[in-house]
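Ligand-bound model needed. GMT.
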Amino acid sequence: MRIGIVCYPTVGGSGAVATELGKALARNGHEIHFMATDVPFRLGTFIENVYIHEIVAATYPVLRTPSYDFSLAALIAKVVDEYNLDVVHAHYAMPFAVCAYLAKQMAERDVKIVTTLHGTDITVLAQDEGLKQVIQLGIEKSDAVTAVSRSLIGQTKELFETAKPIECVYNFVDTDVFHPGAGSQIRHSLAHTGERVILHMSNFRAVKRMDDVIDIFARIVKKTPAKLVLVGVGPEYNHVRHRVQALGLNPFVLFLGKQEEVASLVAAADLLLLPSEKESFGLVALEAMACGIPVIGSTAGGIPEVVEDGVTGFLAPIGDVEKMVRDSLRLLGDESRYQAFSKNARHRAIKHFHIRDKVSEYEANYDRLCK
Ligand code: GMT
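Prediction:
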Protein backbone atom coordinates (compact mmCIF):
# COMPACT_ATOMS: atom_id res chain seq x y z
CA MET A 1 0.00 0.00 0.00
CA ARG A 2 0.95 3.65 -0.28
CA ILE A 3 0.61 5.31 3.11
CA GLY A 4 1.06 8.91 4.20
CA ILE A 5 2.05 9.57 7.81
CA VAL A 6 1.49 12.96 9.37
CA CYS A 7 3.15 13.48 12.74
CA TYR A 8 5.25 15.70 14.96
CA PRO A 9 8.87 15.11 13.96
CA THR A 10 10.23 16.28 17.32
CA VAL A 11 11.33 14.24 20.32
CA GLY A 12 8.24 12.72 21.98
CA GLY A 13 6.22 9.52 22.17
CA SER A 14 3.79 10.22 19.33
CA GLY A 15 6.58 11.15 16.92
CA ALA A 16 8.56 8.09 17.96
CA VAL A 17 5.58 5.77 17.47
CA ALA A 18 4.66 7.29 14.09
CA THR A 19 8.25 7.08 12.87
CA GLU A 20 8.86 3.52 14.05
CA LEU A 21 5.52 2.51 12.51
CA GLY A 22 6.52 4.08 9.18
CA LYS A 23 9.91 2.35 9.23
CA ALA A 24 8.35 -1.03 10.02
CA LEU A 25 5.70 -0.62 7.30
CA ALA A 26 8.43 0.27 4.80
CA ARG A 27 10.33 -2.89 5.79
CA ASN A 28 7.09 -4.82 5.10
CA GLY A 29 7.15 -3.44 1.54
CA HIS A 30 4.71 -0.53 1.82
CA GLU A 31 5.55 2.86 0.32
CA ILE A 32 5.66 5.42 3.14
CA HIS A 33 5.35 9.20 2.80
CA PHE A 34 6.10 11.22 5.93
CA MET A 35 4.64 14.71 5.94
CA ALA A 36 6.09 16.83 8.74
CA THR A 37 7.85 20.11 9.46
CA ASP A 38 11.17 18.31 9.63
CA VAL A 39 12.77 14.89 9.19
CA PRO A 40 11.29 12.74 12.00
CA PHE A 41 13.84 12.42 14.82
CA ARG A 42 14.00 8.62 14.96
CA LEU A 43 14.23 8.10 11.22
CA GLY A 44 18.01 7.63 11.17
CA THR A 45 19.66 7.02 7.84
CA PHE A 46 18.20 6.44 4.36
CA ILE A 47 15.48 3.78 4.32
CA GLU A 48 14.15 2.17 1.19
CA ASN A 49 10.45 2.90 0.47
CA VAL A 50 10.45 5.98 2.72
CA TYR A 51 9.81 9.48 1.33
CA ILE A 52 9.82 12.71 3.30
CA HIS A 53 7.78 15.76 2.37
CA GLU A 54 8.58 18.76 4.51
CA ILE A 55 5.88 21.31 5.23
CA VAL A 56 6.86 24.87 4.48
CA ALA A 57 4.28 27.21 5.96
CA ALA A 58 3.22 29.98 3.57
CA THR A 59 4.17 33.47 4.73
CA TYR A 60 3.04 36.72 3.16
CA PRO A 61 2.95 40.26 4.55
CA VAL A 62 -0.87 40.28 4.90
CA LEU A 63 -0.83 36.93 6.74
CA ARG A 64 -0.38 37.88 10.41
CA THR A 65 0.92 34.36 11.18
CA PRO A 66 2.33 31.65 8.86
CA SER A 67 -0.54 29.48 7.61
CA TYR A 68 0.90 26.20 8.83
CA ASP A 69 -2.32 24.15 8.87
CA PHE A 70 -3.48 25.21 5.39
CA SER A 71 0.00 24.59 3.99
CA LEU A 72 -0.06 21.12 5.53
CA ALA A 73 -3.53 20.39 4.11
CA ALA A 74 -2.37 21.51 0.66
CA LEU A 75 0.76 19.37 0.94
CA ILE A 76 -1.25 16.29 1.97
CA ALA A 77 -3.66 16.76 -0.97
CA LYS A 78 -0.73 17.14 -3.39
CA VAL A 79 1.07 14.03 -2.09
CA VAL A 80 -2.18 12.00 -2.11
CA ASP A 81 -2.74 12.73 -5.82
CA GLU A 82 0.88 12.66 -6.95
CA TYR A 83 1.75 9.36 -5.26
CA ASN A 84 -1.71 7.75 -5.34
CA LEU A 85 -1.85 7.30 -1.58
CA ASP A 86 -4.35 4.79 -0.23
CA VAL A 87 -4.27 5.95 3.37
CA VAL A 88 -3.23 9.04 5.32
CA HIS A 89 -2.46 8.16 8.93
CA ALA A 90 -2.72 11.22 11.19
CA HIS A 91 -1.02 11.02 14.58
CA TYR A 92 -3.18 13.43 16.62
CA ALA A 93 -6.68 14.63 15.81
CA MET A 94 -5.55 18.20 16.16
CA PRO A 95 -4.22 19.50 13.91
CA PHE A 96 -3.34 16.52 11.73
CA ALA A 97 -6.69 14.71 11.27
CA VAL A 98 -8.37 18.03 10.56
CA CYS A 99 -5.70 18.93 7.97
CA ALA A 100 -6.08 15.46 6.43
CA TYR A 101 -9.87 15.96 6.21
CA LEU A 102 -9.37 19.29 4.48
CA ALA A 103 -6.89 17.63 2.11
CA LYS A 104 -9.42 14.93 1.33
CA GLN A 105 -11.86 17.60 0.17
CA MET A 106 -9.22 19.00 -2.17
CA ALA A 107 -7.65 15.80 -3.50
CA GLU A 108 -9.03 14.01 -6.52
CA ARG A 109 -8.27 10.59 -5.14
CA ASP A 110 -10.54 9.00 -2.52
CA VAL A 111 -7.96 8.54 0.22
CA LYS A 112 -8.86 7.03 3.61
CA ILE A 113 -7.96 8.80 6.83
CA VAL A 114 -6.83 6.85 9.89
CA THR A 115 -6.38 8.92 13.04
CA THR A 116 -4.49 7.80 16.10
CA LEU A 117 -5.25 9.63 19.34
CA HIS A 118 -2.15 10.00 21.51
CA GLY A 119 -3.58 11.91 24.43
CA THR A 120 -2.72 15.57 24.63
CA ASP A 121 -5.41 16.67 22.17
CA ILE A 122 -8.02 14.84 24.25
CA THR A 123 -6.74 15.30 27.79
CA VAL A 124 -5.42 18.86 27.50
CA LEU A 125 -6.46 20.75 24.34
CA ALA A 126 -10.08 19.57 24.35
CA GLN A 127 -10.59 21.46 27.63
CA ASP A 128 -10.85 24.55 25.42
CA GLU A 129 -14.44 24.67 24.08
CA GLY A 130 -13.40 26.13 20.71
CA LEU A 131 -10.65 23.61 20.11
CA LYS A 132 -12.93 20.82 21.32
CA GLN A 133 -15.17 21.30 18.29
CA VAL A 134 -12.19 21.21 15.96
CA ILE A 135 -10.89 18.01 17.56
CA GLN A 136 -14.38 16.50 17.34
CA LEU A 137 -14.45 17.26 13.61
CA GLY A 138 -11.10 15.49 13.18
CA ILE A 139 -12.43 12.42 14.99
CA GLU A 140 -15.86 12.26 13.31
CA LYS A 141 -14.51 12.77 9.80
CA SER A 142 -11.77 10.16 10.02
CA ASP A 143 -12.50 6.85 8.32
CA ALA A 144 -11.03 4.97 11.28
CA VAL A 145 -9.90 6.11 14.70
CA THR A 146 -7.51 4.33 17.02
CA ALA A 147 -6.27 5.28 20.49
CA VAL A 148 -3.15 4.15 22.30
CA SER A 149 -4.95 2.86 25.41
CA ARG A 150 -8.37 1.84 26.66
CA SER A 151 -8.20 4.62 29.17
CA LEU A 152 -7.84 7.16 26.35
CA ILE A 153 -10.81 5.63 24.52
CA GLY A 154 -12.88 6.00 27.71
CA GLN A 155 -11.87 9.63 28.15
CA THR A 156 -12.56 10.42 24.48
CA LYS A 157 -16.01 8.80 24.57
CA GLU A 158 -16.89 10.60 27.77
CA LEU A 159 -15.68 14.00 26.63
CA PHE A 160 -17.07 13.98 23.11
CA GLU A 161 -20.09 11.73 23.62
CA THR A 162 -19.25 10.32 20.21
CA ALA A 163 -20.61 7.12 18.68
CA LYS A 164 -17.53 6.84 16.48
CA PRO A 165 -15.92 3.41 16.94
CA ILE A 166 -12.44 3.81 18.43
CA GLU A 167 -10.12 0.83 18.39
CA CYS A 168 -7.34 0.38 20.90
CA VAL A 169 -3.99 -0.23 19.24
CA TYR A 170 -1.41 -0.11 22.00
CA ASN A 171 1.95 1.51 21.42
CA PHE A 172 4.81 -0.86 20.78
CA VAL A 173 8.51 -1.33 21.22
CA ASP A 174 11.25 -2.88 19.15
CA THR A 175 12.58 -5.39 21.67
CA ASP A 176 15.71 -5.97 19.59
CA VAL A 177 16.67 -2.31 20.07
CA PHE A 178 15.40 -1.93 23.65
CA HIS A 179 16.91 -4.93 25.41
CA PRO A 180 18.62 -5.55 28.75
CA GLY A 181 22.16 -5.54 27.34
CA ALA A 182 21.79 -2.23 25.49
CA GLY A 183 23.22 -0.11 28.33
CA SER A 184 26.28 -2.10 29.33
CA GLN A 185 28.73 0.19 27.47
CA ILE A 186 27.59 3.42 29.11
CA ARG A 187 26.51 2.44 32.61
CA HIS A 188 29.96 3.29 34.06
CA SER A 189 29.73 6.86 32.76
CA LEU A 190 26.45 7.44 34.59
CA ALA A 191 27.27 6.01 38.01
CA HIS A 192 30.07 4.47 40.06
CA THR A 193 30.02 0.81 41.03
CA GLY A 194 27.55 0.32 43.87
CA GLU A 195 25.43 3.34 42.91
CA ARG A 196 21.88 2.88 41.62
CA VAL A 197 20.72 4.67 38.48
CA ILE A 198 17.24 6.19 38.65
CA LEU A 199 15.94 7.45 35.29
CA HIS A 200 13.28 9.94 34.28
CA MET A 201 12.76 10.79 30.63
CA SER A 202 10.10 13.22 29.41
CA ASN A 203 9.37 16.59 27.86
CA PHE A 204 9.38 18.23 31.33
CA ARG A 205 5.77 19.43 31.08
CA ALA A 206 3.80 20.18 34.25
CA VAL A 207 1.75 16.98 33.73
CA LYS A 208 4.93 14.94 34.32
CA ARG A 209 5.06 16.17 37.97
CA MET A 210 8.78 16.90 37.93
CA ASP A 211 8.71 17.95 41.59
CA ASP A 212 7.61 14.43 42.49
CA VAL A 213 10.51 13.01 40.46
CA ILE A 214 12.99 15.15 42.41
CA ASP A 215 11.33 14.49 45.79
CA ILE A 216 11.25 10.73 45.24
CA PHE A 217 14.90 10.73 44.28
CA ALA A 218 15.89 13.01 47.19
CA ARG A 219 14.52 10.42 49.58
CA ILE A 220 15.94 7.40 47.78
CA VAL A 221 19.45 8.86 47.82
CA LYS A 222 19.24 9.36 51.59
CA LYS A 223 18.93 5.58 51.95
CA THR A 224 21.06 4.20 49.15
CA PRO A 225 23.86 5.56 46.91
CA ALA A 226 22.22 6.63 43.64
CA LYS A 227 22.28 8.95 40.66
CA LEU A 228 19.25 10.53 39.00
CA VAL A 229 19.53 10.66 35.23
CA LEU A 230 17.18 13.19 33.61
CA VAL A 231 16.68 12.95 29.86
CA GLY A 232 14.70 15.61 27.99
CA VAL A 233 13.94 19.30 28.07
CA GLY A 234 10.75 21.32 28.32
CA PRO A 235 8.86 24.06 30.14
CA GLU A 236 9.76 22.90 33.68
CA TYR A 237 13.47 22.50 32.94
CA ASN A 238 14.70 25.66 34.75
CA HIS A 239 12.43 25.02 37.69
CA VAL A 240 13.86 21.50 38.01
CA ARG A 241 17.44 22.81 37.87
CA HIS A 242 16.69 25.30 40.67
CA ARG A 243 14.99 22.70 42.82
CA VAL A 244 17.84 20.23 42.42
CA GLN A 245 20.27 22.96 43.47
CA ALA A 246 18.09 24.12 46.36
CA LEU A 247 17.96 20.57 47.74
CA GLY A 248 21.74 20.19 47.43
CA LEU A 249 21.31 17.37 44.92
CA ASN A 250 23.56 18.72 42.16
CA PRO A 251 26.31 16.09 42.63
CA PHE A 252 23.73 13.31 42.27
CA VAL A 253 21.76 14.50 39.23
CA LEU A 254 22.79 14.28 35.58
CA PHE A 255 20.90 16.54 33.17
CA LEU A 256 21.38 14.92 29.76
CA GLY A 257 18.98 17.14 27.77
CA LYS A 258 17.51 15.99 24.46
CA GLN A 259 18.87 12.63 23.32
CA GLU A 260 18.17 10.98 19.97
CA GLU A 261 19.27 7.45 20.81
CA VAL A 262 17.76 6.47 24.14
CA ALA A 263 17.82 2.67 24.27
CA SER A 264 21.29 2.55 25.86
CA LEU A 265 20.36 5.17 28.48
CA VAL A 266 17.14 3.38 29.39
CA ALA A 267 18.86 0.01 29.61
CA ALA A 268 21.65 1.47 31.81
CA ALA A 269 19.13 2.38 34.53
CA ASP A 270 17.89 0.39 37.53
CA LEU A 271 14.48 2.05 37.89
CA LEU A 272 12.30 4.36 35.81
CA LEU A 273 10.22 7.05 37.54
CA LEU A 274 6.94 8.09 35.87
CA PRO A 275 4.74 9.84 38.45
CA SER A 276 2.66 11.69 35.80
CA GLU A 277 -0.65 13.43 36.36
CA LYS A 278 -1.79 12.63 32.80
CA GLU A 279 -0.37 9.88 30.61
CA SER A 280 -2.38 8.22 27.88
CA PHE A 281 0.14 5.38 27.59
CA GLY A 282 3.67 6.18 28.78
CA LEU A 283 5.91 4.95 25.98
CA VAL A 284 9.01 5.38 28.11
CA ALA A 285 7.59 2.91 30.66
CA LEU A 286 7.25 0.32 27.90
CA GLU A 287 10.77 1.01 26.62
CA ALA A 288 12.09 0.58 30.16
CA MET A 289 10.20 -2.68 30.60
CA ALA A 290 11.62 -4.01 27.33
CA CYS A 291 15.07 -3.36 28.80
CA GLY A 292 14.11 -5.24 31.97
CA ILE A 293 13.85 -2.03 34.01
CA PRO A 294 10.97 -1.97 36.54
CA VAL A 295 8.79 1.15 36.64
CA ILE A 296 7.72 3.22 39.62
CA GLY A 297 4.76 5.23 38.41
CA SER A 298 1.37 6.72 39.06
CA THR A 299 -1.96 5.18 38.15
CA ALA A 300 -2.71 8.02 35.70
CA GLY A 301 -4.47 7.29 32.40
CA GLY A 302 -3.08 4.30 30.52
CA ILE A 303 -0.07 3.59 32.77
CA PRO A 304 -1.81 0.64 34.52
CA GLU A 305 -2.43 -0.95 31.09
CA VAL A 306 1.32 -0.89 30.44
CA VAL A 307 2.85 -1.50 33.86
CA GLU A 308 1.41 -4.43 35.79
CA ASP A 309 1.31 -3.26 39.38
CA GLY A 310 3.29 -5.52 41.69
CA VAL A 311 4.64 -7.54 38.74
CA THR A 312 6.61 -5.28 36.38
CA GLY A 313 6.79 -2.28 38.70
CA PHE A 314 4.75 -0.53 41.38
CA LEU A 315 2.01 2.06 40.86
CA ALA A 316 0.67 4.62 43.29
CA PRO A 317 -2.07 7.27 43.29
CA ILE A 318 -0.99 10.53 41.61
CA GLY A 319 1.14 12.53 44.06
CA ASP A 320 1.71 9.69 46.54
CA VAL A 321 5.45 10.32 46.76
CA GLU A 322 5.60 8.43 50.06
CA LYS A 323 4.48 5.15 48.45
CA MET A 324 6.68 5.64 45.40
CA VAL A 325 9.74 6.04 47.66
CA ARG A 326 8.76 2.97 49.72
CA ASP A 327 8.24 0.88 46.57
CA SER A 328 11.52 2.03 45.01
CA LEU A 329 13.46 1.08 48.13
CA ARG A 330 11.57 -2.22 48.39
CA LEU A 331 12.72 -3.16 44.90
CA LEU A 332 16.26 -1.83 45.16
CA GLY A 333 16.76 -3.54 48.50
CA ASP A 334 15.63 -7.01 47.48
CA GLU A 335 17.76 -8.46 44.69
CA SER A 336 15.65 -11.56 44.03
CA ARG A 337 12.41 -9.54 43.86
CA TYR A 338 14.19 -7.04 41.59
CA GLN A 339 15.34 -9.79 39.22
CA ALA A 340 11.84 -11.28 39.08
CA PHE A 341 10.32 -7.85 38.23
CA SER A 342 13.00 -7.27 35.61
CA LYS A 343 12.25 -10.61 33.94
CA ASN A 344 8.48 -10.02 34.11
CA ALA A 345 8.89 -6.56 32.59
CA ARG A 346 10.82 -7.80 29.57
CA HIS A 347 8.41 -10.70 29.14
CA ARG A 348 5.34 -8.42 29.24
CA ALA A 349 6.85 -6.02 26.68
CA ILE A 350 7.49 -8.88 24.26
CA LYS A 351 4.16 -10.62 24.82
CA HIS A 352 1.79 -7.66 24.72
CA PHE A 353 3.55 -4.77 22.98
CA HIS A 354 5.79 -6.25 20.30
CA ILE A 355 6.33 -4.00 17.27
CA ARG A 356 5.52 -6.85 14.85
CA ASP A 357 2.07 -7.45 16.35
CA LYS A 358 1.04 -3.79 16.55
CA VAL A 359 2.20 -3.06 13.00
CA SER A 360 0.03 -5.99 11.85
CA GLU A 361 -2.94 -4.44 13.68
CA TYR A 362 -2.44 -1.16 11.83
CA GLU A 363 -2.03 -3.03 8.51
CA ALA A 364 -5.31 -4.86 9.14
CA ASN A 365 -6.95 -1.50 9.76
CA TYR A 366 -5.67 -0.06 6.48
CA ASP A 367 -6.71 -3.23 4.59
CA ARG A 368 -10.23 -3.09 5.99
CA LEU A 369 -10.67 0.49 4.82
CA CYS A 370 -9.26 -0.02 1.35
CA LYS A 371 -11.14 -3.17 0.40
O1 GMT B 1 4.13 12.84 26.94
C1 GMT B 1 4.07 13.84 26.25
O2 GMT B 1 3.80 14.90 26.73
C2 GMT B 1 4.35 13.74 24.76
C3 GMT B 1 3.18 13.16 24.02
C4 GMT B 1 3.51 13.13 22.53
O3 GMT B 1 2.84 13.82 21.81
O4 GMT B 1 4.42 12.44 22.13
O5 GMT B 1 2.95 11.82 24.49
C5 GMT B 1 1.68 11.27 24.30
O6 GMT B 1 1.77 10.26 23.32
C6 GMT B 1 2.62 9.17 23.67
C7 GMT B 1 2.63 8.19 22.50
O7 GMT B 1 1.38 7.65 22.27
C8 GMT B 1 2.14 8.51 24.97
O8 GMT B 1 3.02 7.46 25.32
C9 GMT B 1 2.10 9.54 26.09
O9 GMT B 1 1.55 8.94 27.24
C10 GMT B 1 1.23 10.72 25.67
N1 GMT B 1 1.35 11.77 26.67
C11 GMT B 1 0.32 12.12 27.46
O10 GMT B 1 -0.76 11.58 27.42
C12 GMT B 1 0.61 13.21 28.45
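The two ends are 12 Å apart (CA to CA).
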